Please model this.
Amino acid sequence: MNDLSDHLTSCESVLFADDTTIYGHGNDLNKLYNDVTNDLNYITDWFRANKLSLNTNKTNYMLFTNSRNKTHFGKNLTINNEIISEKSSTKFLGITIDNKLKWDKHIESLSKQLSKSCYILNRVKYTLNRQNMLTLYYSIIYPHLLYGITFWGNTYQNYLSKIIILQKKIIRSITGQRYDAHAKPLFKSQNVLKLVDIYKLEIAKYVMRVIKNTIPNSLKNIFIFSHNAQPQHTRQSKNYKLVHTRSRTIVSSRSIVTMAPKIWNAINRNIYMNKSFNFILSMNCFKSHYKTHMLSSYNA
Model:
């Protein structure tokens, strides 16, 4: 049993297979440094006790901050007297995270992957029929668009434009259209969602899971429903509207906590409730209704 997390005093840990991540937060940078340093010492002792070794060449740290003029520690984080290098970005469970949470590094990596897939589609478009091309799209392209999109899908438009342009190229390749063909009707004809609507659908699905109580409490408690915020039970409570939260930074304004109420509250309740508005539809019915609603706006 891995009891490493029990030996941390100030930081939290994320354990996945043989990867271990510890993280801490605070307003005082010096105190945060001391807290992390102490826990790294405890981790060193834990490794010794369990006769394990740590590859410091594969170990690094990041300092997340909104400050433009980042103040350095003046010291180095070390393990066994070996310096841990600071990184501005790193890959975590398949997602490239940067220290400003702008997601430009992840999108750059994603665009390279999509470019390769686009090349494959262009090579086989004269061999495969349209249905097979769609199958290929949902096999080698869509999973990359979907993965982690609730984190990076609402970043700056100039970053997202790379993926949006590539997705348009891909749908033109699938449908055998010219490079300058209008993309919206092509998405509609193939029942394929654009990137922005994939993001909206995933956010809405997250809210649905919260309503249906199918995710851990630690993940669902980031939202407040309007009927929980009001002391009296009203007819309005059946709308399952979310309370908007105020954001103090640009990063938080683009997060799921801020965006979910905007996206979810804009959805007509007949999309996620039955005709009598007395119970929530199944996830599959909701996805079908919401996708149809979004595709209906793809007019030339």
